[in-house]
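Board notes (copied after class):
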Amino acid sequence: MPELNWLGDRKAKDAAKRVPYRLLEPLAQVGDPAAGNLLIHGDNLDALKSLLPLYAGRVKCIFIDPPYNTKSAFEHYDDNLEHSQWLSMMYPRLELLRELLAEDGSIWVTIDDNEGHYLKVMMDEVFGRRNFVANVVWQKKYTVANDSKWLAENHDHVLLYALNKERWRPNRLARTEAMDKRYRNPDGHRDGPWKATPLYAKRTPTEKELGFSFTFKNGVVWSPPAGTSPRFPAAELSRMDANDEIWFGAKGDATPSRKTFLGKLSVESPPSPTIWLHSEAGNNHEAREESKLVNAAEVFGTPKPEKLLMRILELATNPNDLVLDSFLGSGTTAAVAHKMGRRWIGIEMGEHARTHCLPRLTKVVEGEQGGISTAVNWQGGGGFRFVQLGEPVFEQDGRIAPSVRFAPLAAYLWFAETREPHVSGSFESPLLGVHGDTAIVLLYNGILGDRRPQGGNVLTHEVWQHIHALLPNHTGSWLVYGEASRLQPATLKRLNLAFRQIPYDIRVR
């Protein structure tokens, strides 16, 4: 498969491994504390790495609207990056986003023509070309700029990838009133409204289908057009003919077609097309008007409309699924996810995390009626935590930062060993859990009472008895992290126990 090469690409492709794990420090709680939604203020590369121990493999839908690298300065983003810098910025973030995506999850990325085709090749590399689903064309402007020097650009791309295309299937679009109006009943058929559909399929006929013809009860002889095949066998055509399910036109002289009844549709909802008109998925003007409802004095420069996000989340998620946006901007993704009953994580590094995202999402919790609120009957409720990135878990010399408590280190170690987030995320004893046939234990920060050896940070015979009592019927191996071990190698071997010393045997993986 072709790979994208640029100045600094090797460093960019290794960058995700070098990002430190950081703690998330609470700033404010809005609404229901049990809601579980997160608004994170901080660099998204660091924030994505910090989310891995808690959310790896759990995000159903990722939407990002990264800077477009248009070489025009935006108020809230430095969008004037050189091409190679832009690629180096995107690559490690896409790698971490892939780690967070669920096996049946999808990622949607908006971009324009400046970097869109390079981004496609990069995402082929990160997610696998086989997992490319579609390039959706979104009509972001409904007017034509008459002062355009070349062509009047009025669309964006939305690149869609699945983590595993074979396991991912989009939802279908809800039927609209306009769709149903295409079905009528001019002949008063007992099965209700219908529309005429062809009796042939646009595929090369098999040898058996060559020369196919059928004579209807009114004497009309029908054969599929050249190069096409009959959609139905003769027996089915005979059944439909007997039930008056064939249409010959109002005067009876039109090419025969099938009456497809609205009430008998096997698939009631249509699949999404790859061209999204502004009337269906919103536009930039609409998005700016929505932004004014948050802060009329300081309108965000590049928002996306709520309709666009609603379309994406309708296709990619179901209620209670987890949605992530690591370029949150004005907060649209989180606002729409909240109104649609999805859980969400939003990351924003700029000061507008406070000036736009926080007030906008607070208003959503309070029942704000802009955007899609009427369409989804939003009345308010729920809540979220506003947090910021704290210090790294590990200092430069590898030591654990003094401020790190037991639970964050436990979450990190569990993920480092299993590559999976902990089921509950709650740690109340040194036994973190069992992965495969290995019980994983952490002796740290006085979890058994105090910092003395008999208190639990050092593996002694007494501490081992306490640990073993937590899981007395375990017959597999044990993996214990601690400050030191007082047990002899022969004893460790007899107990089927591997000991790793903190901090020296902890690896950032």
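Comment from the instructor: The chain has three domains: 9-170+273-391, 177-264, 406-501. Residues 406-501 form one domain.
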